[in-house]
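Why this split exists: single-chain examples teach little about how molecules sit against one another. For that reason, every record in the complexes split bundles all components of an assembly together and asks for one structure covering all of them. Below is a record exactly as it appears in the raw files.
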Amino acid sequence: MSETKEALFSKKNKKLISDPLNLNNPVTIQVLGICSALAVTVQMDNAFVMSIAVMFVLILGNLIVSLMRNMIPTKIKIIVQLVIVAALVIIVDQVLKAFVYDVSKSLSVFVGLIITNCIIMGRLEAYALGNKPWGSVLDGLGNGLGYGLILMVVAFFKELFGSGSVFGFPVFGDSIEKTGLYSIGYEDNGLMLLPPSSLILVALYIWVQKSKTPSLIEEN
Amino acid sequence: MSINKEGNGYTLIFAIIMVVVVGGLLAYIASSLKPIQQENVKNEKMQNILQSIGIDETKSVTRDEAGAIFNDYITKRIVLDYDGNVISELSSADPIKDKNELDAFNVDVRKYYNNLTGLMKKFPEGGAEYEAGLKEAGITYPMFVCEKDGETFYITYFSGKGLWDDIWGYISLREDGRTINGTVFDHKGETPGLGSKMTEAVFNNDFVGKVITNEENEYRPIKVIKPGNERKEYEVAGLSGATFTAVGVEEMMKRSLSVYNKYFENNRVEAPAVIENVTDSSMMDSTYLDSMAQLVIDTNAILANN
């Protein structure tokens, strides 16, 4: 094995980052972490902070578990993983509360719910427990980016058609003063603010993704 | 390696060490960040109180600055009981001390509301027994008196329950004690994008100028109705997709403002004592018209500012 000589961004390592963005996306292909993709995608800024928070927990969780992978007793490995993830999430929550209080308020309970995000436990179990730290960090980064990508795409369409804004800036005019698009009778779509629209958007995303990448289509 | 990693002893020791290390780490982080978090909460409260009177500077004032100018505006901090009697009164010269329950700033309305949930489940329709229970609960009601440009404002603070979790609000009333001057609502966990919009201008602006008493000067609760409908002077537009948040807002306002109204009633009676019924209504009308006229001016000013 020539792993000691392996470049930091070898082909294999690059694949760790690029795969989760498309070919092995945690949300659209593995269908993990759907729950938060439904809930925190109403506004783009919340989705953004959520993505960063998940990425942070994923990368550090992967790193810690990978460093400890030879010490963790197999009997309690799930418990150990849970404790590590829970501790990281609490740290994120406390730091957000202290330094970006407004963001932590708008995310409210969803920060705490990162613990239940299946992507995190999934990656710890599937990758970090059996691989070296650097690879695990990249795997965490890749999956975090893949998750964040879906969150941002879904949030973009939900916020655009649900509230007529992008990152909080109105783009269709003022819905109360009836300016811009609203003056010709356009109305925001209330359904876009509700969780079901995320499912529709994620499904549309999968459709587009699969038609662009034929290798993803399962043969029957 | 001589250690058997699959043995019970290793597992147990590993678990104990892990719990101690993680527990210690979290305790350290939580306690070292706590002062900053508490400061945030305190400053946010001051910011909310100032915002509810619409102090222009505070619209862009950061949380940290709100703490500095709080005492310039808030002259008195009053605690009321259920009958609207003053229990304690502090002036801006008195420093805000933590844990002083007789300081309006420290009255924990959210804790008080949670004491009431049993009572509300028992009497969902209200009624005399419910009122008696409210009185017995021994809850206090904080009020802040603010002087701004020679006018006095009364800021009320109360809490209730939205769809998912606690909601609370600050309502400032004008000098007459019946016209709403401004509101600031907040929540712990309402649905982002739906109920969470209760914090935004869309919802709050509609409260400005609404009155909490009818023409006979009796208490009349504010109603939150479906958006898009014609609204009377005691009705405000709710948020689409957030019906239960609106129900919660209506309930907490109804329950709390009735207490504050008692205070205003007690203090209003003092002025004209002898001539009652005849002139009272006409006098009421004129003050009411005055306040409405003032309101039109104010709304115009707000629109112009925007």
